[in-house]
Amino acid sequence: MVPLLKCLDAGDVKFCIENLNPWLQITGDGQVLLSEAAGAAFIGGSVGVIGSVASTMRKRDEVRRRAEGEGQATLGAQYRAAAPHPQPL
Q1: How far apart are CA 33 and CA 4, in angstroms?
Q2: In what helix (H) or strand (E) does residue 24 lie, and over which residues does it extend?
Q3: For residues 24 and 34, is the Cβ–Cβ distance under 8 A?
Q4: Considering the entire predicted model, what is its pTM?
Q5: Where on the phi/psi map is residue 86: left (φ > 0), alpha (ψ -120 to 50), or beta?
Q6: How far apart are the first and last CA of the chain?
Q7: What is the pLDDT of residues 13-28, one digit of tens each?
Q8: Low-confidence ranges of the chain (pLDDT < 70)
Q9: What span, in angstroms and rounded, lies between the C-alpha atoms of 21 and 17?
Q10: How many secondary structure helices (H) and strands (E) does the chain include?
Q11: Measured between alpha carbons, how far is residue 40 from residues 14, 25, 36, 47, 77 in Å?
Q12: What element of type H or E holds 23?
């Protein structure tokens, strides 16, 4: 959508509409029609975003569990607790 807005800002509306014709058509009565490929690209992008968010949230929960002592990160906490502390001079 951003390239369309930039193209329209340049002032050559006819050129912009002609370049968008395979994906986007504006009928004589003002209706906007998207091609099947444009709809498929939108749906595919949406599915990709949702998948990325879901995997990020899952990884976040996994890291949180480790930090709370349910995973491998507990070894570092145990090591720090057992290490001798320096005495003040």
Answers
A1: 15
A2: strand 24-26
A3: yes
A4: 0.45
A5: beta
A6: 67
A7: 677 767 676 777 777 8
A8: 1-5, 8, 10, 13, 17, 19, 21, 69-89
A9: 6
A10: 4, 2
A11: 26, 16, 6, 11, 49
A12: none
